Amino acid sequence: MKNRFCALGSVYAGENPFFFEQAMRSVIDQTTPVPIILVIDGMLTDDLERVVSEFSNTISHIIRIPENAGLANALAEGLDYALPHFDYAIRFDTDDINLPERFEKLIDLINAGSFDLIGSAMEERSGNYLEKIVGLRSVPTDLREIRNKIIYKNPFNHPSVAFRIGAVLNCGGYENYPYFEDWYLWAKLVSSDANVCNLDQPLVWFRMDKNTLSRRRGIKYLWFEFLFFRGLMKMNLERKTLIPFFFLLRALTRLMPSALFAFVYKLARRVG
Questions:
Q1: How many domains does the chain have?
Q2: Which of 17, 30, 163, 232 could join 103 via S-S bond, C-beta 3.0 to 4.6 A?
Q3: Considering the entire predicted model, what is its pTM?
Q4: Looking at per-residue confidence, does 2 or 195 come out higher?
């Protein structure tokens, strides 16, 4: 049976309307287009509503949540709707740009290999039109490497993934782990022996701004990180006795001055 695919994204009032419009155009202008499910997480600004209206004829289904409840809840709502109609969801973020062949490449690989989860590398870019390359988010492509890294580093770029909806829901779906919803989900899939992989080719332009790194510092972020790693300890993951050690290493960086944190972040990207 041929797999059925959809694209799934969520927008909330804090998004930039211009970036949102760019993202939607990149989802629509794919070499292999698929039906689009958009979850509106709470009330939007008038400018964001105008963008939604602009694309309303090309969005297959819009789900409106009355009050903003966060990304995990919004995507869970989208998957509940998608399950009877589609086999796979291709995630997209509403401020990043998807390269035109992204969906085609993911669909071809899934149809050939029956993967439960597949992602890709991303280019980190800045500027209104993402014209400036500032970095590369590489990913492990070997299954063994993914299993080894998942206890200390997120091996998948969330805006780049596609996944089998049934596999995600069977392991509990997105849960409320702020900042770590996606990593926690991937860990559940890996611990259940799901068939996962990555492409080393960048298929998404990820939007970096001056606030991207600042959101990953501070006591609040560190607390959510602790809860996340505590959750990892309960899973059937390889080398999980090392999880406390890796948490402590990461925790040290959360309280660094911003300039030093940015340096360590870039260094970690190079080391992998």
A1: 1
A2: 30
A3: 0.92
A4: 195
